[in-house]
Amino acid sequence: MPRFRLTLAYNGSSFSGWQIQPNAPTVQAAVEKALGVALRQKVQVHGSGRTDAGVHANGQVAHFDFPRALSETERARLRKSLSGLLAPDVFVKELVPVHDSFHARFDADYRTYHYYFSDIHQPLFGQTTAFFPQLPHFDDMRRAASCIQGDLDCLSFTPFDPALPHHRCWFFESYFREADDYGRYCYVVTANRFLRNLVRSLVGTLIDVGSGKKTAEEFSALFRNPDRTKSGTTAPAKGLVLYKVGYDGHWKLP
């Protein structure tokens, strides 16, 4: 059966996350409903991964199957219809045919998240930027972030899940940068996978470093000696964006 890949951007503020839930608005449910209307039949959508309630996306990837191939003109028309049906919170950036063995989740080489925050109030970005006042030790935050490289045990930063064989992730990059001219900063992190609340917990603990509650060395030690009780407060969801899901082999595990 022909398979198609969607690339989606969305503002997660009004959603209870990506995955379908009973009696709660989710991105997956909204996309499936829009596809059902546009294609006039029930369609199941498979995402590259879950995003939590309030988390946004610039490059969420999903796939769905349809009984017949769609021409380029039909795909363009479908993409336009979907964006109209999903507006204003969800936008379809791309809709392309893929091999019928492609899987949005299992074929991904890496995911990149951005976390946007500022140490001054930003009324223009209230839904997408977290506010953390007084970060005098920003250089220590940068130093702590740079230690997040390679194969690391992340149990200090995610709830224990007995269903998982391990809580390790392989990190390809982790750094801070100035995001724009409005005084916002951005934490960029790329890994082969992300566990529940991992990025938000990393950011919350890095903020502790920036405010002087922890040292960069204490932060680094949490990977060598996992202890969930010693990580920082989980950062707000509104600053987090699933920026990109990569299938291009740019980063692969050694």
Automatic annotation (TrEMBL):
It comes from the Bacteria. It catalyses: uridine(38/39/40) in tRNA = pseudouridine(38/39/40) in tRNA. Residues 9-107, 165-248 form the Pseudouridine synthase I TruA alpha/beta domain. The keyword tRNA processing applies. GO terms for biological process: tRNA pseudouridine synthesis. Pfam families: PseudoU_synth_1 (PF01416). Gene3D superfamilies: Pseudouridine synthase I, catalytic domain, C-terminal subdomain, Pseudouridine synthase I, catalytic domain, N-terminal subdomain. Substrate binds at residue 113. GO terms for molecular function: RNA binding; tRNA pseudouridine(38-40) synthase activity. The active site is at 52 (nucleophile). Homodimer. Formation of pseudouridine at positions 38, 39 and 40 in the anticodon stem and loop of transfer RNAs. Belongs to the tRNA pseudouridine synthase TruA family. This is tRNA pseudouridine synthase A. The lineage of its organism: Bacteria, Pseudomonadati, Balneolota, Balneolia, Balneolales. The gene is truA.
